[in-house]
Amino acid sequence: MAKGISEAIRTSLGPHGMDKVILSEEDILITNDGATILKNAKFDHPAANMLVDISRSQDSEVGDGTTTVVVLSGSFLGTCIGLIKKGLTYHRISEAFQISLKKAKELIPPLNRKLYLHILTSSPPLR
Question: Over the chain, what is the mean pLDDT?
Fold first, then answer.
């Protein structure tokens, strides 16, 4: 279910993103905004609701990137399903995510600093 939601949201990304139609008893909503889609859709599945919560959290913390975070999360979930089918335990998968998180926290800040310095040194002056 969550993978399907992630795929549906993914197709709304970008300048050629497809519109989605959400029907409710009171209204018909047509949009290609991932946050709006998730905010207005109703799900019974716990994993689907988790994606909605992730989107809301991203929106409240950053104000942008809600569609991207849902697509990434859906991709992670899809990969996990494949690993579980191959016999890996939930615990091993969780450990791998923790190791990956630790490594990302180590590698990203220096890249961020280099990008910031590059922007400062190569950007034309603001007027």
Answer: 85
